[in-house]
Design a protein that fits this description.
Largest sheet: 7 strands, mixed
Strand order of the largest sheet: 8-9-7-10-13-12-11
Structural class: alpha/beta
Number of helices: 10
CATH class of the largest domain: Alpha Beta
CATH architecture of the largest domain: 2-Layer Sandwich
Helix content: 25-40%
Number of domains: 2
Strand content: 15-25%
Order of helices and strands: EHEHEHEEHEHEHEHEEHHEEEH
Distance between the termini: 29 Å
Number of strands: 13
C-alpha cells in the first residue's frame, strides 16, 4: 500500500483528489489536521514519509514545499503553475508522444493547467504531423465553470446577488494569462495564442475552442478528424465525431468526469476544434491521479470516472 500526502487538501483540487482516492485499497491517505496543515515541520514530516505527494498549493507555497523534500524516493505531483515549464519537472500530459514513459520514470511531475490541457490536446497532434506550423498564430476561447477559481470564487458565485455574476465574464484581458507559457511550449508553438478565457455561472466543466480554416492548413475537415482519431487511442482523451446536442455544445457535458472529448465541427471552409472536459477532472485532479497511476504502474484510469471505450 502506497502512502499519499495531500499538501493543500482543503482546496478544490485537493478535495477532489481525496474524494477519488479515499475508497482505493492500494492507497493510504495522509491528511494533516486543520491545526497542522500549515505547520512547516508537520508538512515536512508528511512529505518525507510518503511515497507520493500532491501539491495543491499556491505557486510560492509549492516551490517552498519542493525544498522540504529529503526522501529521494518521494514522488512529487505539483498541481500549481509553479513548475510547468521547469526543465527539472516532467510535464504530466501522458497523451503527448513519448510523455507517458517520461512520467513513469519521474520523481517530479508538473500537472497541466486546465485551459492549457484543452489547447494542447487540440494543437499538439496537428503540430506533430506538420499541419500547423511552429510559427502559426492561433486564437482560442475557453468557457469554464466557476469552481476553477477556487474557494474564493466559489463563495462569490454561491452568495452574490450581483447581476454581473449572472452571465459569462471574460477575463485574462491583458493577454498575460498564467497558462500561456505551457500552452505554447507543449503544443509545439513558437508563439502563445490570443487567449480568451470566460468564467460562467455553472459549477464545473470546460469547453475550449480553436477556430481554423482547413483549406489554409492544406487539409479537409475529414483529415483533421482522422488525425485526432488516430492520435488518441490510449489515455483519457477520446475523439467524438458527432457530439452536438441538437445544435448546441454544452461546456458542462463532462462535469464530474475525468476524461476529455475532442471534436471537429463545421465544414471544409470553416471549422472549430473543440475540447470538452471538467476543469476539476482532466483539467486538474483527474489528470493528477492519472499521473499517480502511471508512476505506480497500474491502469491509468484506476479510480477515475471516465467513458469506457
Amino acid at each position: 500500500m502506497k502512502k499519499v500526502f495531500l499538501d493543500g487538501s482543503a482546496g478544490t483540487t485537493g478535495l477532489r483528489i481525496a474524494d477519488r482516492l479515499k475508497e482505493r485499497k492500494d492507497i493510504e491517505l495522509v491528511i494533516l489536521s486543520d491545526d497542522l496543515r500549515k505547520d512547516l515541520s508537520a508538512r515536512k514530516d508528511a512529505i518525507n514519509s510518503s511515497d507520493f505527494v500532491f501539491l495543491c498549493l499556491p505557486d510560492d507555497a509549492a516551490r517552498e514545499a519542493v525544498t522540504l523534500v529529503e526522501n529521494k524516493d518521494t514522488v512529487i505531483i505539483d498541481t500549481s503553475t509553479a513548475h510547468r515549464t521547469n526543465e527539472a519537472f516532467t510535464y504530466g500530459f501522458p497523451e503527448l508522444c513519448g510523455q507517458r514513459e517520461k512520467i513513469a520514470a519521474s520523481k517530479r511531475i508538473a500537472n497541466p493547467g486546465c485551459h492549457a490541457s484543452g489547447f494542447i490536446a487540440l494543437v499538439a497532434p496537428l503540430t506533430d504531423c506538420g499541419i500547423i506550423k511552429k510559427d502559426a498564430l492561433l486564437s482560442c476561447f475557453s468557457i469554464t465553470g466557476y469552481s476553477g477559481g477556487g474557494k474564493k470564487m466559489i463563495a462569490e458565485y454561491d452568495v452574490t446577488e450581483n447581476v454581473l455574476f449572472k452571465s459569462p465574464r471574460q477575463y485574462g484581458l491583458s493577454q498575460n494569462h498564467k497558462h500561456l507559457p505551457e500552452m505554447a511550449k507543449f503544443a509545439g508553438l513558437d508563439n502563445p495564442p490570443v487567449f480568451s478565457p470566460i468564467v460562467a455561472p455553472f459549477y464545473s466543466g470546460m469547453e475550449l475552442t480553436i477556430p481554423v480554416f482547413p483549406r489554409n492548413l492544406g487539409v479537409t475537415k475529414s483529415d483533421l478528424e482522422t488525425v485526432y482519431s488516430d492520435f488518441y487511442k490510449t489515455g483519457l482523451i477520446y475523439f467524438s465525431k458527432t457530439p452536438d446536442e441538437n445544435g448546441f455544445l454544452s461546456a458542462a457535458a463532462l462535469s464530474e468526469r475525468d476524461d476529455m472529448e475532442i471534436s471537429v465541427l463545421g465544414n471544409d471552409e470553416r471549422s472549430i476544434l473543440t475540447a470538452r472536459f471538467d476543469n476539476l477532472g482532466k483539467g486538474a485532479s483527474g489528470s493528477a491521479i492519472q499521473n499517480l497511476n502511471i508512476v505506480m504502474g497500474i491502469d491509468e484510469s484506476t479510480g477515475l470516472n471516465i467513458k469506457r471505450r
